[in-house]
Amino acid sequence: MIRHGRQATLQLRLGDDWFTVCDAARLQPGRGAAALLPDGRQAALFLDRDGRAYAIDNRDPFTGASVLSRGLLGSASGRTFVASPLLKQRFDLESGVCLDDEGVTVRAYEVRVGNGE
Amino acid sequence: MPDATPEAMPATTTGARSAGTAGATSAGTAGATSSTPGTRPTLLLVGHGMVGQRFLEALVERGVTDSHHVVVLCEEPRPAYDRVHLTSYFEGKGADELSLTPGGFMDTHGIELRLGERAERIDREARTVTGGSGRVYAYDTLVLATGSYPFVPPVPGKDAEGCFVYRTIEDLEAIEAYAKGAGRGAVVGGGLLGLEAAGALKGLGLATRIVEFAPRLMPAQVDEGGGAALLRTIERMGLTVHTGAGTEAVVTDEDGRVSGMRLTDGSELPTDLVVFSAGVRPRDQLAREAGLKVGERGGISVDEECRTSDPAVFAIGECAQTVDGKVYGLVAPGYAMAEAAADAIAGFPGSFTGADMSTKLKLLGVDVASFGDAHGTAEGCLDVVYADSRSGTYKKLVMDPEGVLLGGVLVGDAEAYGMLRPLTGSVPPVAPEQLVLPAGAGGPVKLGPDALPDDAIICSCHNVTKGQICACGTLPEVKQCTKAGTGCGSCVKTILQLLPQTGDKGLCGCFSYTRAELYEIVKVKRITSYARLLDEHGREEARGGEGCEICKPTFASVLASLAPAIGADGYVLEGEQAALQDTNDHFLANMQRNGSYSIVPRIPGGEITPEKLIVIGEVARDFGLYTKITGGQRIDLFGARSDQLPAIWTRLVAAGFESGHAYGKALRTVKSCVGQTWCRYGVQDSVRMAIDLELRYRGLRAPHKLKSAVSGCARECAEAQSKDFGVIATASGWNLYVGGNGGMTPRHADLLAQDLTDAELIRLIDRFLMFYIRTADRLERTASWLERLEGGLDHLREVIVEDSLGICEELESLMAAHVAGYRDEWAETLQDPERLARFESFVNAPGTPDPTVRFVAERDQMKPDLAVLIPEGALTTR
Ligand SMILES: Cc1cc2nc3c(=O)[nH]c(=O)nc-3n(C[C@H](O)[C@H](O)[C@H](O)COP(=O)(O)OP(=O)(O)OC[C@H]3O[C@@H](n4cnc5c(N)ncnc54)[C@H](O)[C@@H]3O)c2cc1C
């Protein structure tokens, strides 16, 4: 979760590498977008209203559908979350922890907004 | 460094850069009066500060950015930012965080912003303004929002290196840089701003002194006792205060840098840096030179609409002298002026006649409040004072000889402010000492609004008393009947406390209002931005946050139903609105369990030609969709990936289909039987009526989905009595039933009116739907709404048949605006390639379908392949 400048690209940390996804400007604050990762997994990327970027796994563990990127962002007690569009469970965007069922976690990725390589 | 003349404001010389040429005539064609570009009139705003930005937002809310070409000259190198919280720049808030201008705001609304461009001259005859770049800008309407400049007393040395003012981000940057090589700082001025600047210098690690000419701190706001309490607390923080002393000269060393100050009492103090914070003066120079009328002590004279002596020129904010003869140095009155000017320009009624100067602030961590006649200037008035220098608390109430509360000052503990301000002008219900003593020392533990007398003014904007408010039952009623709470809104909390309590009826964790209350707020305040609603009307702890998945779509829905009436865009995926929609509204389709979508084209009344049926069949076949007939006489196509939706809808739109809004909290279907045309029992043409109704109400956003049906005779084959509004033909017209429901809790609809003509029927349904949209809770179907409605069906009948509240005309006109503004969402979406980008499965791999959306065969069609959905690595259980 990093503040981004204008023409910056959004990158995810995969192991030791940074994977460039897209221009940060492609994301609309308050909404998400899905990215296809090299290993076939999907990440859900989000920007909050302050322009911070987040990434978690796109798969909704409760239904198995790859839809978290299509949920709505919200915040409660200072934590930014996405609510799954299917059954509305909320996931903390920094840790991936489900706020409605703490036993369930989705993977959270480190994100940075850089100038692209 | 600083100069007292507006010509040499610090921001004017930095960052000036020319931007584009559109909208401006070049220097060579000075005198051009045509409005460019196009035929829309040009509105030119000079000054993009706090009030300027609020003014632009008010223009957007009133649709003026559509009817006018809006150009903004902004002297500073960056768009408007939060000057009130300027000091937090030193606490690490960057310029971005202080910004008041949402990214994309100017582009979205077609506003031309010219950064670093200062207006130098107004030619009122030619209606042009010349900028510092030499460009000439033509205008039809000119709005001046040039704010104030810091007053710097004309003392020797005031321009030395090490002298600063405290107004812009550049000022703070300069102070911060200079402070690195300094150990001591001094602030000239012990008012609101001076204390703030002093706190900032202390935060930068400087040993800080405050020099105030008046005998006490904050002379404008607090009295002597209050100033003394403040003084003690501030000194305890390690600041040094000199009151009753003016600045005679700034002393400099041989390099011309500040080394000290000489005071009028003869004393001399060493300092490395001086910040002048001795008040502000309106920036009226530009207007003065253009021959506009200005006040005796400065400020551009304006009338109630904020119009200057030239009807084509307005002035708002700190640069204006308003009809009450005052120049307001606070932001809230400036905002009210921005709204008044925007109203005048948009042709709405609105005025600014003055503002309450009562304030409550936190300065250097100390609560300070003053209200009413804080200085006790009224003849024969008496004080009740409580002071405790140990805790730095000071409270004073000013009363007249009859015991009427006139005003007061609170320092150190301003908790009672919310209660005392409305009591002003009345005799308090308890002995005055009880109002100032701390709890346990004879003071009331907590005096709630219950203790207020009936004639206490609660809403000072509209002069509404407690008694008038208590005569109403709910907040929307209060606003409608008394207008209380519809001005600045600061009394809404007190109003809610006065109304009967039934626990927290708030919509969600972000809002303590119900959906119906938010509807009224959005309507009355013409709020078209979710962020604004949240930051101004959200629960304290939710302001500035993201909001949540409950209130965002609720606001989007309210906005969609009010859009035409408040001048917002009704297209549900417009700008910020898109980010608020539930996924179904966002993709204009219904998400199914594997993340695929289903599609329901509108088939009004269930009537469809063979050609259209064939198109549906072909589309389903070509895209491999599962098809099923719905309960609402339509056809649902399942299993589309999001990236297929545009191609599918391109074909459907080409064949004449429109969105069926199966994805929205909106009108779904108006079911019908075949009616008189074919049926031997039919007494009216139910199909025609169903089609008429469906086309009239299509796209109407509501608290929940809306279903309807029309039956051609009393046999009721269309099952109209199980619908939100159902129509049954009679020999002489139509009977209207409302509040029916099928589903989980079936409810038979109630007969609202009988034997209506076509026109009467439609008028009544218009009113019914709009009244429901206005007053229902989120996700409350008409059936439960009607059950909850106090007075039930009889009350409903009084309101929408007999017009007991006098709102029917408004309800009808809201519906008329909806009908006139209807556009097919899918056709509109397809027209814009940018909007189509969001349907791609992956931002980084356009054209790649989502591999997890897979299907297997069943009964000659396809169904979701659940095997690919079975949990795997992504889920870790702790
Ligand atoms: C440190 C600080 C703390 C404050 N705290 C509070 C508070 O707690 N509560 C409160 O109510 N108020 C507070 N205020 C006052 C508040 O900031 C002002 O009331 C408010 O900013 C006024 O808005 P405005 O748009 O009229 O003026 P400004 O915000 O000053 O904006 C005017 C803009 O016009 C530009 N301009 C001027 N002339 C020209 C020209 N010829 N061409 C182009 N552009 C021009 C200026 O550069 C400026 O950007 C505070 C102010 C400061 C500095």
Number of domains of chain A: 1
Characterize the overall form of chain A.
globular
Shape of chain B: elongated
Poorly predicted segments of chain B: 1-36, 872-878
Family (chain B): Belongs to the nitrite and sulfite reductase 4Fe-4S domain family.
Biased composition (Low complexity) (chain B): 10-40
Domain FAD/NAD(P)-binding (chain B): 44-324
Domain Nitrite/Sulfite reductase ferredoxin-like (chain B): 592-654
Protein architecture, described:
Chain A: GO terms for molecular function: 2 iron, 2 sulfur cluster binding; metal ion binding; monooxygenase activity; nitrite reductase [NAD(P)H] activity; oxidoreductase activity, acting on paired donors, with incorporation or reduction of molecular oxygen. Chain A: Keywords: 2Fe-2S, Iron, Iron-sulfur, Metal-binding, Nitrate assimilation, Oxidoreductase. Chain A: Residues 19-117 form the Rieske domain. The complex is a heterodimer of chains A (117) and B (878). With 117 residues, chain A is an all-beta fold. Chain A has one domain (9-114): Rieske Iron-sulfur Protein, CATH 2.102.10. Helix content of chain A is 0%, strand content 44%. Chain A contains no helices and eleven strands. In chain A, the strands form three sheets. In chain A, strands 3-4-5-10 form a four-stranded antiparallel sheet, with no helix packed on it. Chain A has a three-stranded antiparallel sheet with strand order 2-1-11, with no helix packed on it. In chain A, strands 6-7-8 form a three-stranded antiparallel sheet, with no helix packed on it. Chain A starts with 8 loop residues before the first strand and ends with a strand. Mean pLDDT of chain A is 87; it is low at 1-6. Chain B has seven domains: 6-150 and 282-346, FAD/NAD(P)-binding domain; 163-278, 3-Layer(bba) Sandwich (FAD/NAD(P)-binding domain), CATH 3.50.50.60; 358-447, Enolase-like, domain 1 (2-Layer Sandwich), CATH 3.30.390; 448-504, BFD-like [2Fe-2S]-binding domain (Arc Repressor Mutant, subunit A, Orthogonal Bundle), CATH 1.10.10.1100; 515-569; 582-659 and 825-878, Sulfite Reductase Hemoprotein, domain 2, CATH 3.90.480; 666-823, Sulfite Reductase Hemoprotein, domain 1, CATH 3.30.413. Chain B contains 28 helices and 39 strands. In chain B, helix 15 packs parallel to helix 17 and helix 23 packs across helix 26 (808-821). The radius of gyration of chain B is 32 Å and the shape is elongated. Chains A and B meet through strand 3, strand 6 and strand 9 of A and helix 18, helix 19 and strand 39 of B. Flavin-adenine dinucleotide binds at residues 11, 46-52, 73-76, 83-84, 86-87, 118-119, 145-148, 166-167, 193, 196, 283, 286, 317-318, 329-332, 334, 361 of chain B.
